[in-house]
Amino acid sequence: MISNLNKTIDKINNSELKLEPFPHIIIKDFIPKELFLKFTDSLPSYYDLKGENIFTQSKSGTKKSIFYESSLFQKIYLKNRHFKEVIFIFKKIEKTINKKFKSEFKKYIKKNILLQKLNFPVQFLHA
Fold first, then answer.
1. Crossing angle (nearest 10°) for helices 2-13 and 81-92
2. What is the pLDDT averaged over residues 83-93?
3. Using an 8 Å Cβ cutoff, are 71 and 51 in contact?
4. In sequence order, which residues have a C-beta less than 8 Å from that of residue 24 and are 6 or more positions away?
5. CA 100 to CA 1: how far, in whole Å?
6. Taking the model in full, what pTM does it have?
């Protein structure tokens, strides 16, 4: 788990911060490919996403989010170590991301974003 986290952090640290059209970084294979493939294999079908704390985000119904509080998220998290590892990585890279964008945050955001906690849903798109 730590090895993949370190690989991801190295990729963030070694990426080029681009400022146009807005501050961003592009990282190929952000999550190590082998882990990513195992992670995607662990995900439920788009059509299986039902229940509380599952939010359909588009009028067309092609985008759904699973929130941490949902029983489906908890079920996947407890049963699949690859899913758990990817979530672990996203939770642990917050400081690295904040450090990478620190100068841009200071320019555009008055509130100290570095003290904020990130919380993200897991999103599924139906193509």
1. 40
2. 89
3. yes
4. 17, 18
5. 22
6. 0.73
Question: Would strands 54-56 and 122-125 be described as parallel, antiparallel, or unpaired?
Answer: unpaired
CA atoms 108, 114, 115, 119: torsion sign? positive
DSSP string, 17-64: -B-SSSSB---TTSS-HHHHHHHHHHSPPGGG--STTEEE-STTS-EE
Q: What CA–CA distance (Å, rounded) separates 14 from 104?
A: 17
Helix (H) or strand (E) holding 104: helix 102-108
Domain that holds residue 119: 2-125
φ/ψ of residue 125, rounded to 5:
-115, 140
Copy the structure tokens of residue 111. Answer: 């509130």
Number of domains in the chain: 1
Judged against a pLDDT cut of 60, whether residue 13 lies above it is answered with: yes
Q: Which residue type does 101 have?
A: F
